[in-house]
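Key idea: predict the complex, not the pieces.
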Amino acid sequence: MRPSSLPRVMIEPLVRATLLEDLGRAGDITTDAIVPADLTVKTVFAARQPGVVAGLDLARLAFALIDPAIRLESEKDDGDVIAKGDAIARIEGPARGILTAERTALNFLGHLSGIASATASVVAAIAGYKAQVVCTRKTTPGLRSVEKYAVRAGGGSNHRFGLDDAVLIKDNHVAIAGGISEALRRARARTGHLVRIEIEVDTLAQLAEALDQKADAVLLDNMGPDMLAEAVRLVAGRAITEASGGIALANAAAVAAAGVDLMSLGWLTHSAAVLDIGLDFIE
Amino acid sequence: MRPSSLPRVMIEPLVRATLLEDLGRAGDITTDAIVPADLTVKTVFAARQPGVVAGLDLARLAFALIDPAIRLESEKDDGDVIAKGDAIARIEGPARGILTAERTALNFLGHLSGIASATASVVAAIAGYKAQVVCTRKTTPGLRSVEKYAVRAGGGSNHRFGLDDAVLIKDNHVAIAGGISEALRRARARTGHLVRIEIEVDTLAQLAEALDQKADAVLLDNMGPDMLAEAVRLVAGRAITEASGGIALANAAAVAAAGVDLMSLGWLTHSAAVLDIGLDFIE
Amino acid sequence: MRPSSLPRVMIEPLVRATLLEDLGRAGDITTDAIVPADLTVKTVFAARQPGVVAGLDLARLAFALIDPAIRLESEKDDGDVIAKGDAIARIEGPARGILTAERTALNFLGHLSGIASATASVVAAIAGYKAQVVCTRKTTPGLRSVEKYAVRAGGGSNHRFGLDDAVLIKDNHVAIAGGISEALRRARARTGHLVRIEIEVDTLAQLAEALDQKADAVLLDNMGPDMLAEAVRLVAGRAITEASGGIALANAAAVAAAGVDLMSLGWLTHSAAVLDIGLDFIE
Amino acid sequence: MRPSSLPRVMIEPLVRATLLEDLGRAGDITTDAIVPADLTVKTVFAARQPGVVAGLDLARLAFALIDPAIRLESEKDDGDVIAKGDAIARIEGPARGILTAERTALNFLGHLSGIASATASVVAAIAGYKAQVVCTRKTTPGLRSVEKYAVRAGGGSNHRFGLDDAVLIKDNHVAIAGGISEALRRARARTGHLVRIEIEVDTLAQLAEALDQKADAVLLDNMGPDMLAEAVRLVAGRAITEASGGIALANAAAVAAAGVDLMSLGWLTHSAAVLDIGLDFIE
Amino acid sequence: MRPSSLPRVMIEPLVRATLLEDLGRAGDITTDAIVPADLTVKTVFAARQPGVVAGLDLARLAFALIDPAIRLESEKDDGDVIAKGDAIARIEGPARGILTAERTALNFLGHLSGIASATASVVAAIAGYKAQVVCTRKTTPGLRSVEKYAVRAGGGSNHRFGLDDAVLIKDNHVAIAGGISEALRRARARTGHLVRIEIEVDTLAQLAEALDQKADAVLLDNMGPDMLAEAVRLVAGRAITEASGGIALANAAAVAAAGVDLMSLGWLTHSAAVLDIGLDFIE
Amino acid sequence: MRPSSLPRVMIEPLVRATLLEDLGRAGDITTDAIVPADLTVKTVFAARQPGVVAGLDLARLAFALIDPAIRLESEKDDGDVIAKGDAIARIEGPARGILTAERTALNFLGHLSGIASATASVVAAIAGYKAQVVCTRKTTPGLRSVEKYAVRAGGGSNHRFGLDDAVLIKDNHVAIAGGISEALRRARARTGHLVRIEIEVDTLAQLAEALDQKADAVLLDNMGPDMLAEAVRLVAGRAITEASGGIALANAAAVAAAGVDLMSLGWLTHSAAVLDIGLDFIE
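Result:
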């Protein structure tokens, strides 16, 4: 699925900072020593394994910030499925700049494509069910905005982007408030009409209490498929249902079959392996 | 292995930025609505799986920047081996601040401990051999400094920190230069006495050429154990030997047995899964 | 109404930048020339007119960043109603630092208290009605987070904080989509279950179409009280209703009487006059 | 009056930061969902009320930073008087970017045009008198540079830009020094030949003392027109005279008639309402 | 001469950035490897040559930002004259932090003390004359604020801090305007009453023209002592006189003897050698 | 010697910040008042003294960031030797922008060319000897990266860029460790195979001990030519030899004649005078 691209103004600070952490205080001393300044080359980003692409704009910007004479022409778009060996993009221009920016571009592309690919694999596993695959706030420090973008590229959706854009009452909040009802009452009293309120429940009794208090959404935490199905029946459309906790590729379909609206998976953003992509010179 | 901690001035910008990406424009609206301002609590970071800790200073700073009244007392140090269920640190103070900073602190601690644990597992797998485990420049954007720190916490060493602190001549550089010898000659001519020069070789013929040109180190790329052993014999102590490419936990010992000085693994930093750590409230 | 304070990590960059734009390249040359370095004084922030306070944390931080020896003890809290002549806070410590930070502190306090006071006046005008007073994205550049905080201090609520935290379909979006229904269909297809969708409607026919498409909220733009009342009847609880456009203090009660859930006023943040507060030295 | 434009390097950080506070972590989700990526439109900034324009460069930059393909062609320049309904600028290009940047551009344009318009109204009210209209350091946090620019666009002048570019001895400084003369002596002893020294006086006796000490300028604080006229006579050209305190549109001419050189008005920058400007799509 | 210290908020960004450029991505690997974490030491900054101190606050902050447990107690203040061998400050605390911050602290202290010392030598050379020694905008990139501070510490004064805080009409401006009179007319028409206008003149004829146009100050460029004296006579107190161009320690007295008010020397800030200061461990 | 240019992404933050410290809050008020907006001019950077150029990219960027319509065409490249009167670059375009950016561009060009020229003079003085001229960490705060670049432009080499890219054991480290051998043992135990270890020695006995411990490089501190020659004999190629301390232009050849590999000179970066370059308008 092809997500709307993030405006350059949103990604430029991140790409600049990442280039600088690689360039350090002297720049690319290897390339400067060996590669003639006027040599131009044609190269290609080639997939070393199948998956879903994400992050082409960040890769393109990495090259452009090192040398605006470098052109990255994409063969694939973010969200596209790729096979092993596929050309993802062609990068042409001054050899020095291409070699200098290569690692930064690939670090973005590999990391975000890894997340998109993991997301897509779960989406595929639950095809036919209504559930949406969503990510969490368990993201890599500094990368939340682009990691959530990668989840969208993989066909998933985004849950909260931060602490400020929805109320999510967790078990510790419930404990402090003294119960589901009181927690919901406090939340309702302090938040405006447009803010959705979701609450974590661990038992069906808690779920019933949350429904009585008209929670907008319920996070069904660490429930097995049977209990999830029972919970969905209990909810009966009165709230959005979200399954959370311990959802892997292997059991995703079973969870989806329980009829939940959302399935949230922290590992999509915190533990997905990179997608292996390499830069090949074209003869 | 307990690494020297990074000075606060080095990690503070990263921790501040990460808190801000979670706080957004309104802060923690859930906690503010539900948790009394004067409530203090005692909590603990507990390991949900065995591994090696890294990132306690970043976690401590996350809490301190939200509320200086929060105290994090560590039960373990970075580099310590932990078992499932171990208490890693105790965090006490205002409940609001602890809940608000929890996710940021855990995102750092889980990510860096995941890298330290992966490193430690490889280090353990090659115990008895002389080889050092090193990471690469395949790091997560924005996190190079702290990810390399986590590798040290896991008992590994660091290769180049960036493009500027050593010469590493890769296959594309060799191709552009027209050969191993010319690439080394160019590098030698342009870099000072104190800069080490390493070159990637794919064959024993290339290796011989590199040794003739007195490379300081040779990166033996994608060679099997037998070929590695042959390469080490050929080098005969005249250069530092580094094995690279396709080294996993399963084949690490075989690579080390070949006698190389260094084994570099990109996945330590780009694909290690987080170490699962949770925050528990203490009754 | 006393809002939860924003964590220091959220406001510190703004306060630092504002101090620096006043200090320039040489600092406070008047105070440095005239005031002895060891003189300490007692001062008070006094209200020159009645209103509602907001921004004390920013004022306190302005003094602390200039000289940590300065203490600001608040007599009032953000959200408190104050009368002309009331002491808002007492600031004691080195005279130099107090004089140097005075203007920055007052610029924050006056601006945010002005917004809180304007909000409170509208909230008072509609007392007894269910409508919430909300602000918009028409905020002063760079100050969105703290201006929205000031609205909460005045008893109001916050609408969207930015382009990213809810869908608000405006007239131009509708025109481009070719109609209310198509705009809502596109929005629904591209956004997750947890995102609320609000749409601007200018006529009752548009409103009916929006309700058919199950919009979560409807923005009733520039409608008079009678038309608003008719719209509220038509909605009949099926969506959140928001009145917008041309709402001033004088007509606020009439709008609220129409039964809407929300009343949004851009001028609370873009055109409220500062609340006049002064710094007095205490003999 | 058309002021010299501020170089882009001065305004770019502010415009970038303001776009980012609106884009948040996901960008413009409404526009991305509804508006086709390849749709281009023609739009116009139209004045909803008469006034004076300021801020076109910031508006232009807001669009350009979102999408360089957007062109803003100005029909008016900063400093131009506009009537209700006038076209101020035409903005053409990709519809998505125009809608995404619209609010940021208008927030700048409305805020700065509001200041320019307020300034122009005072300037017009004192036409024929020699007095210059000047603003103060009572500016909105973070916007001093551009707000002072807007005052110039409205035909006013700028007083101090900060604490560092002139000496202005206020009543509290005088009290600490123990009197007008001692305050001026200290200031003279510590500042170079090129720095002007201005001092606030509340009585004619203080004024006489300030003149004896050869103050470069005197700030006549909160004096009525008669007392101001008396003060101007007393000064007799020996110092620049500035009236300050309580100057509104209604009494501006009376103050100017007293013969002062400068009239400073804090409300031009801290309390001017925005100028109402809207974005219209052109059929 | 002891200048007022710059508030920490002004110098902290510079000190942080300078520490980071030295710490790089791994910190002080030498000290971390060799020095025990719990070792504390007593050290002293000792003068290796005579001069005038400046920059102690920046040095103190460098240590504090690395480790708040380090205490720097100054034996001398900024502006104090020191002899070879004098103790300038005592630094005590954790050895690691002291060694890590040493170079950054010394780079600030040496650079700024070098400027203060150069300034003081010129000030001493013209003792008895009324002329003030002033610096120019020929400062080291990024250090203008602190270099101008160092000039004050050495007993000098500051000319313009930037392009924005006074009008200085140079020869190229005059050429473009078509002459001294027209340049002054344009400047007067565009700047407010409080802005001083200075103009560069190369001949006595130009000087006469500038005086006719009531320039506030005249920059007498590259004139010898006799011509300067003639120029001062011609001015006769009607404007501030500034000698500029080619003023070195050797000819400073001759220039001052001509009776000018100001002598500006670019080399104080752009070419002064560092003052040699070292860190000694105390047994 | 022409060094590889630093990528724009590395120098842009520095050039932007330096422009802003000159522009302040109002920009170039002199030029704006006097120079017509549409005037274009042709100018040239002319050498006022012989030397070696460095910093052209920074100067070019200063102009481009003020006005992209300005073109700087270089007549010389960084590293080129220039004679008095030589044209270094031609700058053409809008007069306003050229005058506004002139000082910033010249401050960079003069400072860096001064360093390059000083370096080149030492390099010339030791022509025929094998020694390389290297700089130290005694750089101007904030300018390390570009100052080290200027040393390369002058034909020198760079020693450590920071605390993190090599081990350099100084006398205080040795004292803390309790001796040369123990210091080297600790360093070896904590650093990876690829990090070079250099140690400062003050006597031949220390040198012998360092060689026994297989130091990679020895810093021969403050030794006279005879002692240096003796040290070089003792080393006999087993380590890189570096002379340090008290090396000036006058004694450089004597030091080089002793046969050392490296000569490090702090003053190249901390005390070199600017190279005098001026901007001339072309009729």
